[in-house]
Automatic annotation (TrEMBL):
NCBIfam families: galE (TIGR01179). Pathway: Carbohydrate metabolism; galactose metabolism. It holds the Pfam family Epimerase. Residues 3-250 form the NAD-dependent epimerase/dehydratase domain. Its cofactor is NAD(+). Its EC number is 5.1.3.2. The keyword Isomerase applies. It comes from Limihaloglobus sulfuriphilus. Coiled coil: none annotated. Homodimer. This is UDP-glucose 4-epimerase. It catalyses: UDP-alpha-D-glucose = UDP-alpha-D-galactose. One of its GO terms (molecular function) is UDP-glucose 4-epimerase activity. The keyword Transport does not apply.
Length: 327
């Protein structure tokens, strides 16, 4: 299948592109390189384009005979979304609306969308099933939920077959640890701890130690980036028969910030300074996934569920490319 990968130069998108190639599909990366990198897109065709550019999208669909779209091109920082909500509504919502309009015009029905556990806000029940109530507590989660709803309404018209995949915490590096995280600025826990272990930052700050959790720090469900991508492939293959698919993707096991720090200490064999600071706005205390639905319907099975192995692959990536892709 010819698959347009919007945001295919980014962390998850580049892993997806590599996996699509390996599976015999023809990915075409569409990216404005505002966050992503050209280097990881080695084999795939590349279009330098913006999601707000309706005409460019239409031309790309036509030129490459696109049959399905996967969409990873979103802003992802909770804290930034709290400080600048409009930026999130504009990129994550409005630009996705433009993309869907262009798909509708071109008659492309297949769509796989990167959603997030942030749609659940502070859930009442964990692990979280797909049916948990959705009340986001930050603009990032709200912008993703708005897209999910838009896709739902559009699919009811018969003009869209979509899968919304709600990621818990994507981590690790794919393709033999050669496709890893290289965000600027970096805001995610595992790469930041690794930077501290590599001596690239003075310390790792724990955002909040007074949560109602076993050690007072936030609990998250870390999932290897390749396990996320394999669920996309499975969902893509079912779009013809199931026009509306929504799955929570995680391993189901929660790790506190302190446990993740300990895992990096064990894997790296290094010690570093840990500083306890106040809570980060917009952070729910516990997010863990019940992914029974993805396992049962898609037959999805994560290959690397162990935190230690996820951290190992991230450590390999960061130590082999200390300056990221620009190195
Ligand atoms: N976190 C932290 N220090 C950091 C970065 C993150 O304590 O320097 C915490 C953050 O508050 C959250 C968890 O680590 O509880 C995971 O944060 P991340 O930004 O990686 O992912 P999120 O869960 O926000 O998607």
């Amino acid at each position: 299948m010819n698959v347009l990968v919007c945001g295919g130069a980014g962390y998850i998108g580049s892993n997806m592109t590599a996996m699509l190639e390996a599976a015999g599909h023809t990915p075409v990366v569409y990216d404005n390189l505002s966050k992503g990198h050209r280097e990881p897109v080695k084999e795939a065709k590349f279009v330098y384009g913006d999601l707000s550019d309706y005409d460019c999208l239409l031309r790309t669909f036509k030129n490459f005979e696109i049959e399905a779209v996967m969409h990873f091109a979103a802003f992802i920082e909770v804290g930034e979304s709290v400080n600048d909500p409009l930026r999130y509504y504009e990129n994550n919502f409005s630009n996705t609306r433009t993309l869907l309009r262009a798909m509708e015009t071109a008659g492309i029905k297949k769509f796989v969308f990167s959603s997030t556990a942030a749609v659940f806000g502070t859930p009442e029940n964990t692990p979280i099933t797909e049916n948990e109530s959705k009340t986001p507590i930050n603009p990032y989660g709200e912008s993703k939920l708005a897209v999910e709803k838009m896709c739902g309404f559009l699919s009811q018209t018969g003009r869209l077959n979509y899968a919304a995949l709600r990621y818990f915490n994507a981590a690790g590096a794919g393709r033999g640890s050669t496709l890893g995280e290289d965000h600027c600025p970096e805001s995610h826990l595992i790469p930041l701890i690794i930077q501290a272990a590599m001596g690239k930052r003075d310390d790792i700050k724990i955002f909040g130690t007074d949560y109602e959790t076993k050690d007072g720090t936030c609990i998250r469900d870390y999932i290897h980036v390749e396990d996320l991508c394999s669920a996309h492939l499975l969902a893509l293959n079912r779009l013809d028969e199931t026009p509306e698919q929504i799955y929570n993707l995680g391993n189901g096991t929660g790790y506190s910030v302190r446990q993740v720090i300990d895992a990096v200490k064990r894997v790296s064999g290094r010690d570093f300074r840990v500083t306890e600071t106040s809570r980060r706005p917009g952070d729910p205390p516990v997010l863990t996934s019940d992914s029974t639905k993805a396992r049962e319907i898609l037959g999805w099975k994560p290959k690397t569920p162990q935190l230690e192995k996820i951290v190992e692959s991230a450590w390999k990536w960061h130590t082999s490319r200390p300056d990221g892709y620009k190195g």
